[in-house]
Design goal:
mainly alpha; 11 helices; 202 residues
């Protein structure tokens, strides 16, 4: 990262020609470093080397299509060159990515709210909180586990078993989820209980 950081610092100090020299070396040495391509694009743009800047931003996006810095840099460059329609498509992508990041941040909060209700002895009220958390972020094993606990406490055993299974699929090392699953299967007389309880001890 030496050339990258030298280039970044030079750019921050207004030494754009030096920044370009450093960043060109950085991308030659690490052609898959998307952030180096972004910094190179910014330096080219400040030097009014706009075609080179555009190529650099596009190179960054070919490596990481969701890199907000590259999308935003390319959009601003395109807008300055009169390519408003394509610029708008990239800015829309930035907004969608930011919205998705904001939504995924809601899931832990919803899970925490559900857990508080569960700890207060209100499992029926906790269930919709955990379901909403999983709708926002379907890859949150803790919410699946807590949903299963809540469903089990209100007697919805079949749904609880499925929720425990979902949690173990999301996190194959989730011992507490295997334990919960095994205990419910044992209560139901399912011979698969022993295997799930064994996994909980691994």
């Amino acid at each position: 990262y030496t050339w990258y950081w030298l280039g970044k610092i030079s750019g921050q100090e207004g030494k754009d020609a030096e920044a370009v020299a450093c960043l060109e070396r950085a991308v030659r040495r690490s052609p898959t470093d998307a952030l180096a391509w972004v910094e190179l694009g910014r330096s080219y743009q400040r030097l009014q080397r706009l075609p080179d800047a555009e190529r650099s931003f596009r190179a960054a996006l070919s490596i990481n299509p969701d890199l907000i810095e590259a999308l935003y840099g390319l959009a601003n460059l395109l807008r300055s060159r009169g390519k408003d329609e394509e610029a708008k498509s990239h800015l829309d992508r930035v907004q969608n990515l930011r919205r998705a990041a904001s939504e995924s941040g809601r899931a832990p909060s919803l899970n925490a709210q559900g857990l508080e209700l569960l700890n207060q002895g209100k499992p029926a009220e906790a269930v919709p909180k955990f379901r909403e958390a999983l709708e926002v972020n379907p890859n949150l094993p803790a919410a699946g586990h807590n949903l299963a606990l809540s469903l089990a406490r209100v007697g919805r055993t079949g749904e609880a078993i499925e929720a425990f299974r979902m949690a173990t699929r999301l996190q194959p090392t989730f011992a507490a989820a295997y334990e919960g699953l095994g205990q419910l299967l044992k209560q139901a007389g399912d011979p698969a209980a022993e295997e799930e309880l064994r996994k909980a001890k691994l």
